[in-house]
Specification:
The protein is mainly beta and about 200 residues long. The chain has one domain (about 5-190): SOS response associated peptidase-like (hypothetical protein yedk fold). The protein is built from 3 helices and 13 strands; from the N terminus they run E-H-E-E-E-E-E-E-E-E-E-E-E-H-H-E. The strands form 2 sheets. Strands 3, 4, 5, 6, 9, 10, 11 and 12 form an 8-stranded mixed β-sheet that branches. The chain has a 5-stranded antiparallel β-sheet with strand order 2-1-7-8-13, with no helix packed on it. Strand 7 (about 85-90) and strand 8 (about 95-100) form a beta hairpin. The longest helix is centred in the first third of the chain and has 7 residues, at about 10-15. The two termini are about 30 Å apart.
Length: about 200
């Protein structure tokens, strides 16, 4: 699962996708407009609803293993969702402890899907079973694409474009529970928790 993510350093993302304005975001939450790249960069709502739904679904994640079998996602299109980290919560003794996951200072793109519902575009982050190193925190993780697979993903190549070798390089650390509040969009959200 991926329910929050970050773009701590937007400069490489702006250069890569030729975007003029993108501020650092440390606690990106579902329901907000996020950067999604299709044939061009655009900001669309993080929350996907299939066009045929009677009521909004607002799905934030889509399981990669069954993506094209699910009626909800069958008619969706593909996008890239730039990031440089994400959060997962680990269940520990009845509490949810937040952890920040990242690839050093590097940015990357999640595999995403998008589509329109009643005149508004919405998207979801594709997830996979977590790698062995990350399973101690959460059983699911966002699907991270290698830069060489970006076009392949967007064009709808059915081959396996998820690059688990990137995911195996992901680091993580415990962070403050200030990230639990969606209104906290500050650097402290992703800094390592200093104990005692």
């Amino acid at each position: 699962m991926c329910g929050r993510f970050a773009i701590r350093n937007p400069e490489p993302v702006k250069r890569q996708f030729q975007i003029e304005t993108l501020e650092p975001q440390y606690n990106i939450c579902p329901g907000t407009k996020i950067l999604a790249v299709t044939d061009h960069a655009q900001f669309i709502k993080w929350g996907f609803t299939p066009y045929w739904a009677k009521e909004p679904f607002n799905l934030i994640n889509a399981r990669g293993e069954s993506l094209w079998k699910k009626p909800s996602f069958r008619n969706s299109s593909r996008c890239l969702i730039p990031a440089d980290g994400w959060y997962e919560w680990k269940q520990e003794e009845g509490q949810k402890i937040p952890y920040f996951h990242y690839l050093g200072e590097s940015n990357f793109c999640f595999a995403g899907i998008y589509g329109g519902y009643r005149g508004e575009m919405g998207c979801a982050i594709v997830t996979l079973e977590a790698t062995v190193d990350l399973q101690s925190i959460h059983s699911r993780m966002p699907a991270i694409l290698d830069k060489t697979a970006y076009d392949q993903w967007i064009k709808g190549d059915e081959n396996d474009v998820y690059d688990l070798s990137i995911s195996e390089k992901i680091e993580f650390h415990e962070v403050s529970t200030i990230v639990n509040n969606p209104s906290n969009n500050v650097k402290d959200c992703c800094l390592p928790l200093i104990s005692g």
